[in-house]
Amino acid sequence: MAIVLGPNQYGKAENRVVRITRDSARHEIRDLNVSTALRGDFSAAHLVGDQSQVLPTDTQKQTAYSYAKEKGVSSIEAYGLELARHFVDDVVPVEGARVEIEEYAWEHAVVDGEEHEHTFVRLGQEVRTASITVEGKGAEQKTWVIGGLKDLVILKSTGSEFHGFLKDEYTLLEPTTDRVMATALVAQWRFAETGVAWEDIDWNDVYAGVKRILIKKFATIQSLALQQTLYEMGKAVLEEYAFIAEIKFSAPNKHHFLYNLETFGVENNNEVFHADDRPYGLIQATVMRDDAPDAGPAWTPAANLA
Prior knowledge:
Strand order of the largest sheet: 1-2-3-6-7-8-9-10
CATH topology of the largest domain: Urate Oxidase
Oligomer: single chain
Largest sheet: 8 strands, antiparallel
């Protein structure tokens, strides 16, 4: 039996990068949380403590901040591509790079009926995300891009059913044809460079479009299950964007239970609920094209080796 070093990577997690554009009297802000991870042959660092092939994590941090100025942040996808390509193209020992970004949105504060030029109010509706993976040098280089969002809290007060489910001796849940359906949605969509170059994709426009589709489908489908709703949401996104290969969902079912007011002689016609945050059902699903290109390491996170 031999003991060997398995898969490994290293990087700088959660660099809080804030880029303020001050080219005019009206300022703009991009507020990011950037994590980087580098992959390659770093076995000597683990086995004998030889750091000669290791670009310090502090250098990764410094690069993330400097690139926010040098390359700008027109979108988190474009910024992440610049950063990942730099690590792979310009740092010899690095064979692969993963950049994960969260963006916290701000909007101009309204003062006396007009947008203030340099005061902002944080928007809390959801967090935009992106993951960029670059592997290989030169002509053999491959790139994977994932856009997404998390913590999109959305609720519909009717238009949701749940009945006809499997029952056994432990089943207490009553079927319903009218319930509150709510979730804190996580969605991630993988782009495929099929018929379009990365540089030709309007990342911001696609993000806004995907979010709009997700909300519309959630609202308008007469849902028989959250699973059905997620599938229809994903299907609509793929039908709209030919260069999106697949979309993954993670949706906790934020339960709202009808509160019993009979003790007080009060009728409750689906009007007063107890919002129960745990335990909760967790629905996860992938909607994809049957000819989707190989995902490669696109879904391998920077935070672990799973």
